[in-house]
Amino acid sequence: MKLHHKIVTGVVSLIIGSMAITACTDDVKFGDSFIEKAPGGTVSLDTVFASAEYTKQFLVGCYVLQYYGLPFKNPTEAPWSVSYWNTKMDALTDCYQQHFSNGAAFGKYYGGLLTSADITNTDHPLISYTHDYVWETVRRCYLLMDNIDKVPGLTDAEKKNMIAQAKCLIAMRYFDLYSIYGGLPIVDHTYTGLEGTYETSRATAEETANFMVGLLDEAIPDLLWAYNGNTIDTDAANNTGRWTAAAAKALKAKILLFNASPLYNDEEPYYNGSTEAEQNGIVWHGNFKQERWERALAACEDFFRSNDANGNWYQLNQATGTKPEDYRQAYRMGYIYQGSREIIHCTRVTGQTSQKASYQWANFVGPFGSSNGPFRHSYCPTEEYVEMFPWSDGTPFDWDVDSLNGKIGGDKGQLFYKWTRGKVTQKTASRDPRLYENAIVCSQTLSLNWTTGKPEGDVYELWVGGEHEGKDAADVDENGNVFVTEKDISRFATGYGVIKYYLGQEYYGKYTQWVYLSYDEMLLMYAECLAQCGRFDEAIAKVDEVRARVGMNGLKWGQAAYKGDKSKQNDLATKDGLVQEILRERACELGMSNNRYYDMIRYKRTDWMTKRLHGIITFRMMQNSKREWVRSIRPYIGDDKNNRVEEPYCFTYQKFELQNRARYLWDYSPYDPEVKKWLLMPMPLSEINKHYGLVQNPGW
Amino acid sequence: MNKLRLIKGKALRVAVMLSALFFAVQNSKAEQTEHSDGMHSDLAAVQTVQQQESISGTVVDNTGEAVIGASVIVVGAQTTTGTVTDFDGNFTLKVKPGTQLKITFVGYKEQIVKAANGMKVTLEEESTMLQGVEVVAYGVQKKVTVTGALSSVKAEELTRTPVSSVNNVLAGQLSGVTTVQTSGEPGADAAQIFVRGQGTWGDSSPLIQVDGVEREMWDIDPNEIESVTVLKDASATAVFGVRGANGVVLITTKRGAEGKAKISFNISFSALTPTKMVEQASSADYARFHNAMRKNDGKDPYFSDEIINMFETGADPIRFPSMKWTDYLMKDVTLQQQHNVNISGGNKTVKYFISAGMFTQDGIFEEFDRPYDYGYQYQRFNYRTNLDINVTKSTLVSFNISGKVDESRKPHTGQSSDQMIREMYWASPFSSPGFVDGKYIVTSTAESDNINDVPGERALILPFATSTPMAYAMSQPGAYHYNNNKLQMDLVLDQKLDFITKGLSVKLKGSYNSSYRVTKEITNSAATYTPVYHKWVDESGKVQEQIQYRLSGDNTEPVYSNASSGKARNWYAEGSLNYNRSFGLHTITALALYNQSKEYYYGGDDYNDIPRTYVGFVGRVTYDWNNRYMAEFNFGYNGSENFAPGKRFGSFPAGSVGWVVSDEPFFKPLKKYVSFLKLRASWGLVGNDKVRSGLSRFMYMSDPYIVNQTNTFDRFTYTSVNEPAFAYIFGIENGTATKGAYESAKNNPDVSWEKAFKQDYGLDVNFLEDRLRLVFDYYKEHRTDILAQDWTIPGFLGFNPPYTNFGIVDSQGWEVSVNWQDKIGKDLRYSVKLNVSHNQNEIIEDRQAPQENDYMYTAGRRIGSRLQFKFWKYYYEGAEADYEKEFGSPYPTQLETLKPGDPIFVDLDKNGLIDANDQSRDYGYTDDPQYIAGLNLALYYKQFSFSAQLTGAWAVSRVLGDVFRRPFQNRSTVLDGGLLQYHLDNTWTVDNPDPNAEYPRATWDNANQNYAGSTLFEKDAKYLRLKTIQIAYDFKFPFMKVLGLTQLQLALSGYNLFTLTPYKFGDPEARASTTPSYPLQRTYTASIKLGF
Q1: Chain A closest CA to B493's CA: distance in Å?
Q2: ipTM score
Q3: What is the pLDDT of residues B357-368, one digit of tens each?
């Protein structure tokens, strides 16, 4: 007994000891009951769709997955289209060149290295079939549609409206892939992942277009035309960015335009006609039908009719004056200001642009905020692009003709600005005001005041040795010989810099957006459809409407004023000529919107792919003691400016072929299959190998 | 109200516990009665003998210590008659005096003596079975009867060289253990440990226990360690159930022994130098190489001859410096100290071991002149008291209290040490001259900073100088100071229940660990100076030169702030019943154990607030007959909250058998040569529930949705579960984001643990009177149910496949250790121990997305296999034809148009085109070695002793990355970053077109080809290194006796003294990639050991 007593004392004291440590916070439990219960308060599908608030949030969560066209981050995860390493489709056109050798444009596209193999993230095309949240958006929108019925606290009208928004989101994400891949598997429900087998092959291009249009048609009646009401749920101040009936109709027009374009809608297939994708109608309709254009035209007309009926809510942002900067300001505010009524649908990321580099698009394109970005992901406009912009009155620009007339270089030169020298030197922009909003050119001021629209600050010194050029494009050696530097990491490697969506210091602290659909684009789509349907004069009128906003005369006036060989101009009296002229106008009006890329593939312009591109070297000319004009590689900012030397106005120019890096396709004929295959992106091999019916695009 | 409830709750609990215990005691009493009624038959014989005349005696060993449990058997009796000595070595036997008694005990030589009352038998130790017992899971076992696969090492072997953590010296000491030490960062240099390689691509780290409780290995002072045992096979680890599949490392701390107090001082001072740093190129070499690279691409050079000349002559070291950053920014030598004092001893009632230790190590980053310390530094203070108290003859209470207080320091960059090192390699040698007169100077490329107004002369301007090599000191100056305070306690009660039945005991154990951490942050800003150079002709016509400095930023006072604090606590409780008894030649032991543990603030995932809990039941039965035939059955039954209720508990059985062949009569003739031979085999199932980091702990729950998200999508957030960004900004210049919600994952209610079916076949054999001992093990493991995602489902489903248990990995390997111990003459003793371990694994199933070619699959290959192009040769004119001859397929279009010196890749799928599908996993090795070997030498001559440990690894490789692969790379450019001397020395050039050059022709244009991941950049990293070496001398001075000094030892030792390796890019264990590691250290130590 004594022994037992001791044991009991020992054991009890031990247990009390250990309980003193633990018991103050824990219940004493053993076995299964000791193991914690599952974490409480976790949210499941049922939680979300038992609440009106959470259901609304779930729809917001789908909006987040929309495509954003400006690469602004370094993602370790999808969506890869926002990765600045992956670059932007505009860099694949004849309008822009990227120089950073670690970017996808440089290696995969200019180097011709893109294949269907998708081992790492940079192997994927610029909008990835698998890693751009397209299918996530589709799934989540169907989840919403499947479950919204049981949600308490939402009116039927609210539910219908939310379903309609979800349908637009599906159509939009489908379009993002359809426009660069062709026909897609039609997903019309959610999956569990336990189906076992998946036999879902790619639908034809037409079926895919009809699927998207079907969703939009279903959605349109349940959507507001625009958020212009005066309640918190209908006003623009809180709702701009949501899908509207106008946006749905505009997207419908854009889809049908694509569907009618020669890439798909032609007697001739774009590749060789023998591939499975072509034969099955996935990337080619197999024929040409004018009705497809008529259908696209009808969609455009429908949009404008409805807009009319809704008090012309959407309209071009008009200038308040007639000076070039007034037009620039009108054009700029038309796309950059969130309240612009020119924007039909936009997508958004982050909040305001800020110094914190949360919006790296701005930081990698130029110096922004207080940080001195390395500009390595800059998009340098090409000489070819700059030459697409007419003179400010609308006369077509022609380097050869205009240099003969002394309008380019020298002390009377007015390539970008015209100096009227007298008591007070007047400096006037000489070209299409949109040029200065799409490319930074020499002598342009660093700033255009956000509110007043007045040019302010120093000028961009894009001459060799200039403050900003910094020998990005060229340098001069000891003997005065020019050599092209065309630096890897630079803002001005082509002699020009990008300004659209970057703007410079005045964009700091502003709200970001990327324009997905806009009124000027609608006008030009309308014009294109009219032209394709033989209604030339109406088409020209629509284009002229766009030109008039920036104070330019119409197409016909411009061509009449052109001094050179008229045969070098697009013939506005022919369908083809007019359409090509519209494409040029689209490039000038719709920079950085992916549209130039779409135009290139829609019209099978493989010649744009094989065309060698150029940059420009600008020399500052200074008068020596003998009053001779000689080259100077001095900056103006600094001693010259401090000593009140006149702002440089005399320049000479030298075009150079881009060599860093020469694009791989430049060595090819536009008719070579190796070039033609690039009209559509490769489907990922890893998906094809899953054998659910994904067919590869021709040539890949 | 609350208080009352608490008291009530506690009181109730105590009452319940007490009654449970009382009931248990009563119950055992009842059992005892039953036993005396229904006696077992072989016990009956013993009982009968006891009826006769009784003699008693004592069995002791040669130190006079009682031998407990020695068997005393009557020789020649018809039935086996005998007894076992008790706790004090006493025995009583009813036999006639003069009867022959055979006395045996494991580890001692058998003796036959004549029985006499009051006899005292001294057993002689048998060298075969050195230490008698072996630490196993939840207890100890007689070494001879161990049938599982385990290896152990005594602390003396590990502490010859002072290291902060014993992790770093385990490989080469213990067979079957692989370690990879990638970093030498103070306080964070612990090597990664694998037991028998990696059996899974999930978390393959072993379970580590200190004194039977899961704890971190690097928390303890190596001087506190008694032994380290690694449990390798299923038989040894099944009792750990879901936690045992990756092997278990058991660390046992020292305890006191009966005797007078022994005091021991260990004092050591070490000098540390980096093992091997990658050398950087000088400015002149850099410029020439840069020009050559541009020339290779047909581009004009950037560096003029004048600038190269400036670099070469060093005429203007301010504006045209040539810096080797790794030399400038890192100290050549740093200091380390390790001191320990411990006292141990005890009497019959109380035994104690008390230890206090201190460890400091300085970092190698230069700190220059700042008003605060910011270089790496690590200090640790360890303390421990282990007490064993014999409360009664049969009650042992053990109490351990231990802890550490440490302080580590690091620079304030947001970067880890590897990134700081990378910055050094990224920097160009002329980007800065460093500190000059206390000013940090950066060179300038601006024309306005370089003015030469001397007619006819031009200003020399650097073409670029962009990198900041001193990011850690300049761009985000400041420091972090981390303070950690860890306290650990164990309380163990071991109660013999011999009164219930002989050999039965109960053990209760409770452990509590807590830690607290404070991070202090110091920030300030630092000024930089740009040299502004002006050269002009003054009025007198003399040429004048001047350098002035333009200041940017300024030096501000350091600001101290308490940045953050963290805490952790966890506890562990166990209760077990042990049974250990011999019946004649039969020995049976049994163990039944229950344990539970709880870890609070279990970090690293979304459920930090939910403690991690485990519940386990353990059962073990062992049987041996005369130490000759052994069988063992182990059983673990565990539960964890990570799995769905109803699916939380798993059973893990394992069994093993052993046969000491050398004990068989038929073996007698061979005994001369083979003194001992044991065969072992084990089979069993063990689990692994460790979820790879980054995965949720509760993947069984319904698909999680996340609501009320307020973050918008920006550079730092993702539209996914990490840093989620699901709010959206609608409206016009609206500052308020609309909250969003999303489906964050698809879950799997059936998630479970990994299951490892393990087999082990072993052989222990001693030759030549045990002088040569050999242990060999062959093992196989079939790991199933590894969590993985099924990537074969189509991408259009719109979600990532849920984690499901379908992965399979097979692994196998062998281990051999050979141990030779002998004496030459009287005074020279020596030993040579060699162990070699081999491990190979193969992924059998992982449902990787379908690949174009078979060689691209991870399945069928070792875990960690690399996907890379196969390099053939450097291009030369005519290579096309040779290629076609060699491969029988057309020469493929490469990634670029090749020039001589560019690598040619092999078109593995023979489609005429090199693309991503030509990357294969078939070539090369992985980061963890397939073979690891250790050679341990020891030599004792009189008072001299010498020991050395050589460690080797092979079938291992490293991939060069980043600036180690591509010249002039830095964070954002590939144009003006750093250049290594290796590039200069080992690059293919037109002048030196070496077909075996390490690097291809330097180029930007063809970088896609030349710097693509290929076998060219996978470098063999096998090595043989002298890991530790020690020479010691024990002084014997007359005065020592006076001082009571029993030991005075002076020792010189070294760690990582030399390495033989074909790998040229730094230390073969370190990384030369995007995360180059803090250099591993070479250590020279002098130490003194004093014993009282």
Answers
A1: 7
A2: 0.93
A3: 999 988 888 888
